[in-house]
Write a structure and sequence with these properties.
0% helix; ATP Synthase, domain 1; mainly beta; eight-stranded mixed sheet; globular
């Protein structure tokens, strides 16, 4: 197993039908689904999940993290692109 490339970043779009919460580069996303809490880091395998109600944290490259109070949603990840659709 090779070491992860720590220079990689996630390109993230987090939105609801009427609000854009975040669009940009991040180093991690933390959320939860029926199984439990999970993190998405650069290099994550292709992934799709429904989100459980709770807080989603997007750790930006610099500055304070973005925190979203989600009542529902989905997340999909592919090739360091993460899309979160929440409060639908």
């Amino acid at each position: 197993m090779s070491k992860p490339d720590l220079t990689e970043k996630l390109n993230v779009i987090a939105r609801s039908p009427f609000e854009l919460y975040f669009e940009g580069e991040a180093v991690a996303i933390s959320a939860s689904n029926r199984i439990g809490d999970f993190d998405i880091l650069p290099g994550h395998a292709d992934f799709f999940s429904m989100l459980s109600p709770g807080e989603i944290t997007i750790q930006k490259i610099d500055g304070d993290p973005v925190k979203i109070d989600a009542k529902s949603g989905i997340v999909t990840v592919r090739d360091n692109q993460a899309y979160l659709f929440v409060n639908m």
